[in-house]
Amino acid sequence: MLLNTYEPWKFAFSQEETDFNNLKEGAWGIIGVPFDSTTSYHPGSRFGPIVVREASYGFEKYNTIFNTQLDNIFYDFGDVNVVFGNCKKTCDIIEDTVNELSDLKIKPLTIGGEHSLTIGVLNSLTKKYDDLTVVHLDAHRDLADTFIGELYSHASVMKRVHEMGVKELVQIGIRSASKEEEDFVKNQSNITTFKNNDVFHHLDNIEYYLSIIDTPIYLSIDMDVFDPSIAPTVGNPTPNGIAYGHIEAMLQTLSLKNVVGMDVVETAGDRLGDITAVSASKIIYDFLSLL
């Protein structure tokens, strides 16, 4: 065995296991989705899984912020095969992959890639959990019925998710939406919104709201929820976003809940050391450290 080497195509501290019969039930399994075919502004999130994983090697196993040691067993299963230019087929492949993970009793943690991948993950998980709450951190509502005529898109992902019959959609950090999206939200009883100013001034209320969710939770984090000064290389950067400390507080609360799946999407950096990738990697690292 070579010494002082690492595998940047696998997330740091992930377990090596080639025999699926020996996987730990209830553990987390990372999959990457290198897909960005519906991106409407800044392309490149297909490279997100690579640069996010590589950035993970900059962290210590001891998490000094939370005073925890990353000793939890989790796996990195690599990237799914995608069909560039075909979001629907790609989401079908993701759904099949998450079904396989569920059969192994592994929870999916997906690195994007564009936000549309969440459709594939939740097509699987909503069939397993009929009372799923989706916690969605994003600058945008992503509730367009269609985007440029497409049902499957990064801009319509949460509309497709809402149609799956989730118990509640909790949107946090929102600061950009169409009038049609806002009108849609007003007519729904199961969509709760905390906009960016709510995060700035009433974070304790958001933490409390998250703490009383009594259903399984799926957590979806679009990196454009951050201010562009923190995460500039995303598909659709939007000013006046939240800070990393806000994410830390929410992760600490959510780590005590029944989170059954998670994604971190829209990192569109194409170079090692990209600061958006570092922040995305830190989210995953922090979450796993808190479990």
TrEMBL record:
Binding residues annotated for Mn(2+), in chain numbering: H115, D138, H140, D142, D222, D224
Gene Ontology terms, MF aspect: agmatinase activity; metal ion binding
Gene Ontology biological-process entries: putrescine biosynthetic process from arginine, via agmatine
Cofactor binding description: Binds 2 manganese ions per subunit.
Superkingdom of the source species: Archaea
UniProt keyword Zinc-finger, yes or no: no
EC identifiers of the protein: 3.5.3.11
Enzyme class (EC, first level): hydrolase
Cofactor field: Mn(2+)
Signal sequence segment: none
Keywords, comma-separated and alphabetical: Hydrolase, Manganese, Metal-binding
Family in the record: Belongs to the arginase family. Agmatinase subfamily.
PANTHER family given in the database record: ARGINASE/AGMATINASE, GUANIDINO ACID HYDROLASE, MITOCHONDRIAL
Entry protein name: Arginase/agmatinase/formimionoglutamate hydrolase, SpeB
Phylogenetic lineage: Archaea, Methanobacteriati, Methanobacteriota, Methanomada group, Methanobacteria
